[in-house]
Amino acid sequence: MTLPSPVPVVSRSRSFADSLAMVRNPVEVLSRYTELFGDTFKFYLGGLKEAIVTTNPAVIQHVLKTNAENYQKSDIQVKRMGHFLGKGLLTTHGEAWRTQRRLIQKGFDRKQLEALSAIMQGSLAESLRDFDRQIGSGPVDIYPHLMKMTFAMVAKSLFGAQLKDEDIDLVSHTICTVQEFIVRQTLQPYLNPWFSVSGELRRHEGMRARADSILMAYIQQRRHQEPGHDLLQTLMDARYTDGEGMSDQLVLSESMQLLVAGHETSSNALSWLLYLLSSRTDCLERVRQEFDSVLGDAPLTYSDVPKFEFATQVIQEALRLYPPFWMVDRMAVADDRVADLAIPRGSTVIVHVYGAHHAPRYWPDPESFDPERFSKANEKQHAPFTYLPFGAGPRGCIGGNYAMLQILMILSALLRKYDFELSPGQTIEARAMVILRPKHGIRMTFTQASARDRHLVI
Fold first, then answer.
1. Of all helices (H) and strands (E), which one includes residue 128?
2. 95 pLDDT above the threshold of 90
3. With contact defined as beta carbons under 8 Å apart, do 124 and 153 qualify?
4. Which of 167, 147, 350, 162 is nearest to 260 (CA)?
């Protein structure tokens, strides 16, 4: 595949003029640029910082895998996110990252995910009791409800079942608010001096400190308690080559980053899944039948995940249409070149995941919902590095298997317990924050499942 040479450039003035539009909908702006300038181009973030944007699979493979050692996480993640989340798996690179990744990976192996299944099912049962109360009064916006479900599940997978609901709510609110602030810092960098002098930065730092103090209390309590079977115990039991374990502060940073990365992926995927299935009763009934056939009256556990062939196809297609991580950014450590594209040292490279997922060149009729794209027969036809819902290469999402387990677990419960339909008169569109969210929510009406033979054990 031949890349354009020289690479087209969106002028600094045009980039600045589009900066407010970038805040409102960066996916729309970058997709428009891709149509105008091709699959690889340069533009200026906020009119200030130059970046290379690409949906070209050859460039994506080179940056994320082939020469991944030359591409670190960008200042956006390391500095902005690190300021609020500390130094952990999301905000470090090099040998420190490799060491942490190796230690934390143990928390997501098959044995641990099987053990976590019981904690996850217990959390889901509590969440569904609350959901039952909410749906009785009419249509509900599914996004915040699913966010609450997934956050509680991830939090209890991390800290165990004793985590208080009010603490879960406070930490969840803090994470969402701080993420929105980080996006503004990134897309409107010219406002950062104002954020400092106006007290906005200090206000968000205060929110983070309060959430940190709550989680630190749980960490310090655990040091004096019987070992648990959750991810916190995995972090505490991890040992470096010198025999030392993680400090409480590092356990806190890694816990907070796992909370950030672990809940919104699933809640967004589930929101878009229900939206897509609401207009495709054929797919809906087929998924329901598969859940009933595989599970019967049993609760879903990690060992069941490979058995859900069509449900997995549906999830994969939803993640193609609405990838949670709509972009991945990297910074070149040294001068580099891929085909005809020169990438100077210090360059920011933005992998436009949403653009790659919607490129007509790789996905026929890309805006349609077609789970058959991911059937065993069709999956082999996909061009490599055009489907990146959990990233790619050595820094691909560490919790991808956990996310699939969580999505399937919640989806199986909702589909077998409820009938649902989309409320009329809505405008459904995506908003690209750190994660690709429903901009105006998605309102649906839920009723208890009809007389069809449905099973649900949680």
1. helix 110-135
2. no
3. yes
4. 147
Q: In whole angstroms, give the CA distance from residue 171 to residue 167.
A: 6
- Joined together, the tokens standing for residue 221 give 């309590």
Residue 454 has pLDDT above 70, yes or no: no
Instruction: Find, among 53, 71, 100, the residue nearest to 352 by Cα.
Output: 53
CA 456, CA 129: separation in Å to the nearest integer? 13
Per-residue confidence band for 415, with pLDDT thresholds at 50, 70 and 90: very high
Percent of the chain predicted with pLDDT > 90: 51
Q: Which residues contact 257 (CB under 8 A, 6 or more apart)?
A: 85, 86, 88, 89, 90, 91
Residues 355, 326: Cα–Cα separation, whole Å: 8
Per-residue model confidence (pLDDT) at position 161: 65
pLDDT tens per residue, range 341-362: 999 999 999 999 999 999 999 9
CA distance 56 to 349: 12
Helix, strand or coil for residue 51?
strand
**DSSP per position, 23-48:** HH-HHHHHHHHHHHH-SEEEEEETTT
* Token pair recorded at residue 333: 């450590």
Burial group, residue 91, by CB count within 10 angstroms (0-12, 13-18, 19+): buried
Of 259, 262, 255, 333, residue with least CA distance to 94: 333
For the chain, helix (H) and strand (E) counts, in that order, are: 19, 12
CB atoms within 10 A of CB 19: 21
Residue type, 134: Q
For residue 188, pLDDT over 80 is answered with no
Q: How far is CA 317 from the centre of its chain?
A: 15
How far is CA 410 from its chain centroid? 16
